[in-house]
C-alpha cells in the first residue's frame, strides 16, 4: 500500500456502512484522518459500527442528521447505494464538499494497476473471466468491487506485482475523482437503475466515468456494436480496443470464420468454448482482450474458456440428470437479464420464472418464448407470467408455491435432451432474502432429484 498523507488530520465523514463503509472508515483512520461514521441503523443493532467505535472512531447511528454538515468536514465518503438526493449529500455539494466512494480511496493507495469493468449486463462474468485468465497466466490477479472484497481492502494488500480486477457499478463511478484504470471495459449499455439516476443520460454519464481519467498510455475496451458506447470511446483519451460479435473488425476482439480473434490472430474456435449463450461471446471477447493486453498467452486463455461454465447464479450449469441439463440463472432479476438466457439454448426449455411484483408486465418476453415447451411460475408475479406464457402459445403451464416445488414439477414435464432453466425475470424479495438464496435452493432441489 502507498503511504499517502492526503488525509492526514482531515475531518472526514463516512456516510453509510455495509462492507465498503467499514473498510473505508478503518483505512482513513489508519491514514491519520479524523473520521466520523454515520449510519442509519441504531448502534445497538449495528455490530459494524460498534467495531469502529472500539477502534476509536466517532460513530453516530440511528439517523442521518443534516446538522452533521456544521462540523466542518472536508470530505464525505459515501456508501454507493445512498442516493445523491440524500439531504446530507445535497447539503455537502452545495457547500463544495467533495463526495467520493471508497473506490477512489482504493486507487489512491494502490501499488497495483486496475482493470475496471462496468456495463449493464455481463460485468460479473467478464470480471471473473479476466481474473481466471490472468490467474492461469500467472499474472497474480486480485478480484475486487461488487463481485469480491471491498476495493480499498484489496488495495491495502496489493503490490506492484498484482493486477486488481474490479467490477464497478454506476453508483461507484459517480464518486471518483482521480481513479484511472490501466484497462477499462464497458460491456454494454441498456436502461437500468433509472430510479437512482433519473434519466438514461445520467446513467450513461456515470458509466463513462470509467475512462474519463485515462490517457494514451491506457486501454479502453468497448462494445463496438452499440452506438452510445462507441461515442464514449470517441471522447476517451485512451487507446481504443473495440470488440464485436457482429462486425468484421480489422483490430480488437471479434469473431471470424468460427474463431474468436484478437487483432489479426486466431485465438480459439468458438465451438470449443464451454460457456453457453451468444450474449456470453461479448463477455468472452472483452475478457480475452484484457488478458492479451496484460500479456496472457493464448494457451492460458484457451484453458479457461474450455473449462469455465459460468458464475454462480448467472446461467450456471448445475448438473445433468436423466439427460436433462439444469441451469441456475437466479441472478436474472429482470426481463432484460432473462432474454439472453432464453436465447442461449437450442434445446427445448422448461422455464422456471416469477418473483417480486414491481408493477411491470412481461410482454417483452413473448418473442423469446418460442423454444419454451413448459412454464413453471411462482411468487407474486405468477399470474402475470402465466398470461404471457399463454399468449406465447406454451401448452404446459403450472403454478407452484416456490422454487423448491418448481423443480420436481419441471422434471415431470421434461424429456431427455431438454434444458431446465431457472431464470426468474424478477427480484427474489417476495419469498427469499436474495437471488443467491433462491439459486441455492434451486441447486439443492435439483440434487434431491438424484
TrEMBL record:
It comes from Neobacillus driksii. ATP binds at residues 119-125. Gene3D superfamilies: Mur ligase, C-terminal domain, Mur-like, catalytic domain, NAD(P)-binding Rossmann-like Domain. The keyword ATP-binding applies. Residues 117-291 form the Mur ligase central domain. Its main location: cytoplasm. Residues 313-426 form the Mur ligase C-terminal domain. PANTHER family: UDP-N-ACETYLMURAMOYLALANINE--D-GLUTAMATE LIGASE (PTHR43692:SF1). This is UDP-N-acetylmuramoylalanine--D-glutamate ligase. GO terms for molecular function: UDP-N-acetylmuramoylalanine-D-glutamate ligase activity. Its EC number is 6.3.2.9. It is found in: Cytoplasm. Belongs to the MurCDEF family. The keyword Cell division applies. It catalyses: UDP-N-acetyl-alpha-D-muramoyl-L-alanine + D-glutamate + ATP = UDP-N-acetyl-alpha-D-muramoyl-L-alanyl-D-glutamate + ADP + phosphate + H(+). Pathway: Cell wall biogenesis; peptidoglycan biosynthesis. Pfam families: Mur_ligase_C, Mur_ligase_M, MurD-like_N. It comes from the Bacteria.
